[in-house]
Amino acid sequence: MSAASLVLALSTGCSNPTNTPAPDAPEAGASVELEDAFVAVPRVVSAEQKQQVEQKLRGVVENSGTSFYLAIRRSELSQKWFMAAYLKQQHPGGAVNRAARSLGTRVVSFKEQNGKLFVLDVDDRKVMSDVFDPDVVVEAYPIVTDHGPFNRSHGADRYVLIDPTAGLNRFGVMGDKLGERGVRFEVELSFAQRFRRLADGVAFEQVFTGHADVPLERPIELPGDNVFQSSGTLALALRRYAESPGYTPTPLPPREHYFRGPARLIPNTLLTEQVAAKWAIHPGMRPIRWHITSSLLTVQNDPRYQGYDLVGAVKRGIEGWNQAFGFTALEAVMAEDSSGFADDEKNTLIFDTDEAVPFAFANWRTNPNTGEIRGASIYVPALWVWWADQQFGDDPSARVAAPTRAPSTRMSWAGMKGDTLCELELPVPPEAELAEDAPGLTKKQKVEAYLTNVVLHEIGHTLGLRHNFMGSRVYDGSPGSPRSTTVMEYFDDVDAVHVDTLGPYDVAAVRYLYGLSTQLPTHAFCTDEDANVDPYCNLSDRFDDPLTKYYLPRFHTQLNGWLRGTRPISQLLRTFDYNVKFPLQFVRAGDAATRASAYVMTMAPLRPPLQIPANAPPTYAAQADEVAWRTLARLYLDPAASRGTFTANPPNSPELLPLVVADVRGILLNVDGVRSFTARRTMVDILKVHQTLASYATLREAQDMLTAQLPSLSGDERLQTEDLLARIDAAVSPYFR
């Protein structure tokens, strides 16, 4: 489904499974010891149910234990609990299809009524006024009354017994294209597994398979023909509500260096408030422990990577943030295995052995009432190691093309859905070039620094820091000049290996957020929203002047190859699109002087009269002609979707318009004798789009000159000129809209 976002609505579009499961086998066995607030009660599953589960879920998820009922002490029902959901497994697609993400955390309590145990969202954010303080139902479980061993247990009357897999089963799928639309998703089969008792509650997993009533988007080509079906494992936790001692909220500063915590209503005002999301980090605290999945050791032991200290590189990326705090706030340890990466009580760096997933990401779990970060996870695939191994060194083996991926759907549960703080994608242009060498660094140092840079960036997000894409503006290109003031931006590979420790911006930003300094960062700053309005705020650039030192040199290097090559430009459009959009964004959105200079420098090798080098190949002029008209068409005519981040036509300013009109006139009149009919007719359309007197006058001038030339022309040239005149006649009759 490409046009609709898929979501299972919170209050509509939900249903219980239509397939009635086979009845459980009669329960037999000893009574159950009932002591804690939550108790797992062993459950016997019928042979028919077990066979169905095995058939449906074989190869997707693995049953890691006996299913169970959940007994909850009645005296605890009215207490506040954190209910957290984490999508551990998702089939098809895994991490590419939004697995390994927190779906969110609610503050809930329970209410027993009408044979069901209702789950109520009771966080403080929804209070409108002294009158309107709503109860919001988010789930309902049928109460089990016929379980013999439980009923015979001492104190059973003080507990309520539920089947944690038999609630409303509000699994949904979230798409990203056109917002959220309610779509039914019915669970066909589900069972609970891996019950764990925690110090402050319980955790377990729910394995499910089901189908939607519309086809589900698939981010990559995957085996299996049923595009309606989805399966997965959801990790759930119920933990006693608590606010950490030492947590002090930080108001959002005027410039949003930090992620926002959940919004909350200010009662009786119709206003909302938010604070910066942060942990309860303070001097004297017990360090926050990060567990690195043991799968990193699998990659470490790969013969290709045994020469690198990958474990050390990842740990440095986590513990490197202690420099900003001035005390040990974070510590990194290797986990015994990789099975517990969804555990709510752990902070986990998931190191995937997959060498094809082209991104890393971070997400967290917050207290909805306060904005305190309760836990976090990071996903890093082995592709980053593979890529660095290919990129760096004295004798790289080959040019490497960027992996591609399609949009994916997102799973939600009980109204909670998985989002990431950022997805750090491999910064590879469509036709990748090997990174330039980093003087003074060995290949081992480069690969390890590259990985450390990725982890530093993602840990920074989990601490609450947003992107800062202005960090690279400090780099002037000279030896010894810092590459950036921050790890919180996206780097060109050659710069990333030099940024494996915190920058001054990172230290200042963290210290202000966590109350260790009263001084906000003073370094240059811009973030994601700014990248849509400021051409100097770029997700990936270099140098203090990215236009003249990075984008234009890169464009001209590519341009020289295109003009001297024999491959038609029409076969290089993906590379053309990528390289031309960056200099043109300065023409579209820079100040008056920048617009003019960016245009002049972009068009310098292409403008009429064309300067053809003495050693140029015979195809040089034709190639230059095509790039010229395509560049001007990209600036004024092409659809917005082709233009990159900045899509508006440049203003018809006195600094820019005469320069453009001069070039367009020269191409339209073919003053250098190398312009194609396609290029010339495109210029007519551009002059029409301008809607200025200068452009109108140029069309009238061309009309007169071409009319005068017509008697001396013959053959194809005459026919094409007649067509041009017809186009001009249409453009000026009338000209102004």
From TrEMBL:
It comes from Pyxidicoccus fallax. Gene3D superfamilies: Collagenase (Catalytic Domain). PANTHER family: PEPTIDASE M1A AND M12B, ZINC DEPENDENT METALLOPROTEASE DOMAIN LIPOPROTEIN. One of its GO terms (molecular function) is metallopeptidase activity. InterPro entries: EcxA_zinc-bd, MetalloPept_cat_dom_sf. Residues 444-517 form the EcxA zinc-binding domain. It comes from the Bacteria. SUPFAM superfamilies: Metalloproteases ('zincins'), catalytic domain. This is EcxA zinc-binding domain-containing protein.
